[in-house]
Write a structure and sequence with these properties.
366 residues; alpha/beta; Spore Coat Polysaccharide Biosynthesis Protein SpsA, Chain A; 44% helix; Nucleotide-diphossugar_trans; 9 strands; 15 helices
Length: 366
Amino acid sequence: MRVDKQLIYLLYGDRKLYEFEAKFSILTALARRRSDSGPVIRVLTERPAAFDGWPVEVVKLDAATLQAWTGPSGYNHRRKACAIAAAAQWADKTVFIDTDTFFLCDPDALFEKVGPQRYLVDTFEWTWKDALRRPDYAMFTAGIVESGQQPGDAFRFYNSGLCGLSRDDAHLMERVIQRIDDWSRFTSGLHTIEQIALSFELDGRQVSEGRGQIEHYFAHKEYFHAMLGVFFERYGEAFDPALLTLCEEVPRERPMPSPFERLRIKWRLKGVSPALKKAARKLLYGSAMQGDDYVRACKWAWWSAAISDLREVGLFDLTGAWPQEVPSPGGITELEFRMFAQRFLPTDQTPLSRQPARAIAELIGS
């Protein structure tokens, strides 16, 4: 099992979209590979059959392991730190990558940044000084100060969607896990404590970023989920070498209206109240989307997000006239929007990003 380089994915839960994310990420890693000496790809999952036939090694996780990895406070993302700690023993160099990430370059380029006392992360996010001003960090920063662990203002918080380290430094992840457990009393509701704990362990060490070499789309998941639904409905989930070329079809950025359309929409939003502007922008962005099936899938994602926002303010009612407070897309587009909402976003309020691939395909074909 011991190898020179390994790329690690962790999947748990029964959402199909996580498998779509991982499979697409793997395809981009293989498509960008420039030699046969690339890293071994290992997938840690409780659903190993999902990767039958894929050029990966599957490590089956049982329920007991996943439960143990959540720790005494039941923190799900602690599993990530535990997975890295365990997997780091299997290779000289390990790079863990979140499933909602794709490669822009040969994965080997990431491993060149990893070695003894040399670490890799996704990207720098903010400093301790910034964290002190964040409401979501208030309980955590107060607890850190009270416990005498306050770092300097320039302390750097990293996103751990990418995490690389050598086998010699695997013990660092054990300390990350210990911090997660020690800090549970003042991190309630803070879901990023795993990457915060990692940032504390990396303080003062040689850290490189993967920026420009990968794309971590966590902020735009619903749009990429819509596009991945189209891709896997079209080509299936069984591995085929042809997918390495076909995966290039999928846009690497969230599709947006043209600059001219965005400017036009900006002017249409001039008189809209601040409380409704976000929903109205999403509605009009979706209405302006024109293009292939991937772009059209994002049209539905924009509209789904707009409907969710409108429901929050109590303005979404398909049975009456169009609300005066929100600009209408007009004509046939307004009718299309109403039909979309009635057909795919009924009273259960299920976001489009959580609907199965066949629903996306049905939309595209309608």
